[in-house]
Structures are given as C-alpha cells and as structure tokens.
Automatic annotation (TrEMBL):
The active site is at residues 8, 10. PANTHER family: 6-PHOSPHOGLUCONATE PHOSPHATASE, HEXITOL PHOSPHATASE B. Substrate binds at residues 8-10, 24, 43-48, 51, 75, 113-117, 144. Binds 2 magnesium ions per subunit. Keywords: Carbohydrate metabolism, Isomerase, Magnesium, Metal-binding, Phosphoprotein. The keyword Metal-binding applies. GO terms for molecular function: beta-phosphoglucomutase activity; magnesium ion binding. Belongs to the HAD-like hydrolase superfamily. CbbY/CbbZ/Gph/YieH family. This is Beta-phosphoglucomutase. GO terms for biological process: carbohydrate metabolic process.
C-alpha cells in the first residue's frame, strides 16, 4: 500500500523538542518575555523565525530586524549546546527496530524536518545512513504547515505522494502531510480534531502495527 515513510525529526525520531523548549525559555528569560509549554507547543514544526514571531506576538511586542537575527542566533547557539550532549543511546529502544523492519519490507525511508540542524542531529544519533533521503529546513522556502518539505522528501525518494505516509508530532506537520496528499500518523498527540483519516500512535511499535 505505502512505498515510503517520511518521519518528522524533532519530537518523533528524537526528543530535541525539549531542547528547543529549554533554549527558547532561556532566550525569553533573557529578554523578559513570557514563555511556557503551551506557547512552546505552537512552535512544533514551524521554522526558527516563525517561532520567534509567534513568541513576540504572544507577548504583544516586536523587535527590529537586527535584534530578530541576534535573538535567533543566540537561541540556536544554546540549542546546539544541548545537541552536543546527544548520543546514539538517546534513541528510544523501539526506533531502530522499526526502521529496519520497514526497510526489510521494501519501504523507502526519509526525514522531513523544518530544522536547519537536522543533519547535525542525525549525525549525533549515528543514524544518517538509515534514511534514503533527508529533506530539511535548509532545502525549503516554506516550513510546515506548507507541504514543501514532504514533497521534497517524496521527490528525493522518487515516491508518489499518495503512497507516502508521514509520522508527525505537530499540528502544523499533519496539515502539511494532508496538503501534500499523504497519509499521516499523529505521534503522541491527543486523539482529537486532526481531520479525517489521521491515524494515531504513541510509540514506534504501534507505528509498525499500523503499517502492517
Ligand atoms: P531549527 P521538525 C522543527 O523540526 C521543530 O519542531 C521546530 O520547533 C523548530 O523551530 C524547527 O524545526 C526549526 O528548527 O531552529 O533547528 O532550524 O519537528 O520539523 O523536525
Ligand atoms: Mg516535530
């Protein structure tokens, strides 16, 4: 049925979503801005710049262009400090077995991530070679909910969008998959209002069962 599976990175393959939270929190504390987990959830899947814009809107404030760049650089510097601590054993136990099972069944595998740090993360986790293609934030002009990153991934895999399934932890990513005409598995998201046909999984073993 499906020939390819496209995985989101932050919040699905690994828990870098927590590092994004910590780095944004540190930036907001420095700038005297309000920031909490509910705002952080709005940043899942969207680009660094759009994330900062969401935070500023939430605080009813703005920054000039130079300070926007400075803030994004600072946040990324702190985020990358957290990434330096990542090691292959940070992967949850059922991740690699599922990926190798899907490959054994002839499925092509890709990453579809808005992150410009995706390759660094895959390298830290030692799983770059597991994927047949990586589409990331350096290759797109529109981040999720725009479908571009998933369409780039499908094109790199030479797969028809209608035969791709996306695994996503973000509402923006689910919308992106739907706009790309792909099936979607919502990962660790509440079972509500995600639209018709969205499947749900809370671990990689469940993803494997859905794809049988
Ligand atoms: P960076 P994903 C996304 O990755 C994150 O979910 C989102 O929180 C982040 O702002 C975005 O990458 C950009 O990340 O600052 O590393 O370029 O979930 O699409 O894998
Ligand atoms: Mg994500």
């Amino acid at each position: 049925m499906y020939t390819a599976c496209i995985f989101d990175l932050d919040g699905v393959i690994c828990h870098t979503d927590e590092f994004h939270f910590l780095a944004w929190k540190r930036l907001c504390d420095t700038l005297g801005l309000r920031f909490d987990r509910s705002v952080n959830n709005l940043l899942r899947g969207v680009s660094r710049r759009e994330s900062l814009e969401i935070i500023l809107r939430h605080n009813n404030t703005s920054l000039d262009e130079k300070d926007i760049h400075g803030a994004m650089e600072k946040k990324n510097e702190w985020y990358r400090e957290y990434l330096e601590r990542m090691v292959p054993s940070d992967l949850e136990d059922d991740v690699l077995p599922l990926l190798s099972d899907l490959k054994g069944r002839g499925m092509k595998l890709a990453i579809g991530s808005s992150s410009r740090n995706a390759r660094l993360i895959l390298g830290r986790l030692g799983i770059m070679d597991v994927f047949d293609a990586v589409a990331d934030g350096t290759m797109i002009s529109h981040s999720k909910p725009h479908p571009q990153v998933f369409l780039v991934a499908a094109s790199l895999l030479d797969a028809e969008p209608s035969r791709c399934v996306v695994v996503e932890d973000a509402h923006a990513g689910i919308q992106a998959a739907q706009s790309a005409g792909m099936a979607c598995i919502a990962y660790r998201l509440p079972n509500d209002d995600l639209g018709k046909g969205v499947l749900h999984a809370s671990n990689f073993t469940e993803i494997g069962k859905l794809l049988k």
